[in-house]
Design a protein that fits this description.
7-stranded parallel beta sheet
Amino acid sequence: MKHLMKKLLPVLMAVAPLSVSAQSVYELKDPMGKVQVNVSVTDKDVSYSVLHEGDIMIDQSPISMTLTDGTAFGINPKVRKTSQRSVNETIYPPVYKKKSIEDRFNELTIDFRGGYSLVFRAYEDGATYRFVSKLKKPFMVASEQATFCFPNDAKVYVASPKGRMNEGKKDSFYSSFQNTYLQTNLSAWSKDEIAFLPALVEGKNQKKICITEADLLNYPGMYVRSGASGASFEGVFAAYPKKIVDEVRGLKGVVKEREPFIAKVDGATAFPWRVMVISKNDAELLCSDMVYKLATPAQPADYSWIKPGKVAWDWWNDWNIFNVDFRAGINNETYKYYIDFASKFGIEYVILDEGWAVPGEADLFKVIPEIDLKELISYAKSKNVDLILWAGYRAFEKDMDNVCKHYAAMGIKGFKIDFMDRDDQLVVDFNHKAAQAGAKYKLLIDLHGTFKPTGLQRTYPNTINFEGVHGLEELKWAEPGTDQVVYDVTAPFIRMVAGPLDYTQGAMNNVIMKNFHAVYTEPMSQGTRCRQLALYTIFDSPVNMLCDAPTNYLKEEECTKFIVGIPTVWEKTLPISGKVGEYIVMARQKGDTWYVGGLTDWTARDVEVDLSFLGKGEFKAEIFKDGINADRVGKDYKREVQSVSADKKMKLHMAPGGGFVVKITR
């Protein structure tokens, strides 16, 4: 990995304490002067506000942290000193949606008596802050006050955890983080609900504020709820687990009792960043780098062994291959078929999902008799295909180091870990340790069944995917009224701001809404075929699954070859246009090839794509677009090839629930 290149910005950062009786106000602006953070320190508390080009995005909001011994960071504060710095660096990620990231910010650090600091940063596209403890002895955090006040009754997009029954009651902190978004005014949102992050807020002049967190390594994840007074969000955190019981065949740990505090801390530590990404127009949210930039950088090392790519996946299609002379299921014959399919199309991986290990024992060293892993690994290697194994989190946690060491030595290339279904401090720490163990043994880690990413993919680049998304699997059991199409044009502006997602697209059975129904064993998608193809360009997912059955893909070779050819990491990502909950058009570049993808909601839509990003010369465009009858038959599509150039605009039509994808080459 290339080293970071840093230099001081030539502009002077505006940080000025302005004394007003017992109040000091510190003003911080980003290098371009677009975002301004005002930090107010009084004898009683600390608060902050954020402006974007003069518009108030976050009104004065108090922040603090209380320890179990009564110590309080940010309460009755006494400033010891302040310092500031300006940074301009270029980050070269080993695995990402861009070849390089320009990271420019101005930073203010306020050191307080009592062994703590507050660090604020102003970026051109947002603001962030974090507490830093300098205490030398271990302590426990009783609570954290994280407040986001808005100047008026804002429109919000929030996803409230479904929660699951625990001890006969619904537990909001026991969730798969796979919910759709509610669009509502903050005043109309139930005071009894919480929402997991990211959450989106509409500010003045239709600007958006995406609220999330970054560099979460050993602390509970943050939720938000409607503030007790006024238009605001308040942070909410799961308390530290006191009693955990193994359930779901011993693969999942369910909290039955919690401590009266949220975190145990060793002493000196930097707490997670509280992040506010600000966009002037919705499309800017489609390629935000804020979370990645704020994460702890990876240790300098050779990461060339990390191989992104596509995965032939077994679980969504329920192992339902056909036109074969063996009984399909979790056995070597079936997986050899998947391997042959992957080899034929140049797919890098095959995953063995739940079922390869002996059920009910939560022991990853016990393999069912129908599976001969050594034979499968050898067979896959002969076909230039690698294997990834699924694991329930409690089974993986039991003997993490030995499991990774054993299977890496056998030739397994990664683990898809599932069923965390919490984000209290212990699960956050588990994700961190799983990433570490994977890196130690050069294994890819796909954190399925978990919360949104917070930058772990930068700290450990082998941690390549995260679920925390209402992905295509939800359609196997979807309740009537589930609208995946609208979700698809909402989540990229919210959830994807946090990082890559394990959505698992690629359905070949595509239907319009009135024909959709949930089927577990032969599932279908909502919307058109071209929508499924476009998702491979729209969604960030360095290891990207083909969810349908190999036999279905073999019947649709034209689409399959196109899907497999779409890269999973990129050199450039450009938002072209879009509006939350309505439509998206974006472009991505890999080498000399550009891909342009588009999605719409249930409204048919005509779009013009400005191709000025192409540069000089003539190009060939291979277009997959909705067929003339796609509004009646979701599978209907048309492929065509035409010449294009940078001085022209491409006109494309999307059917209701439709999409398009264009591959542009010289």
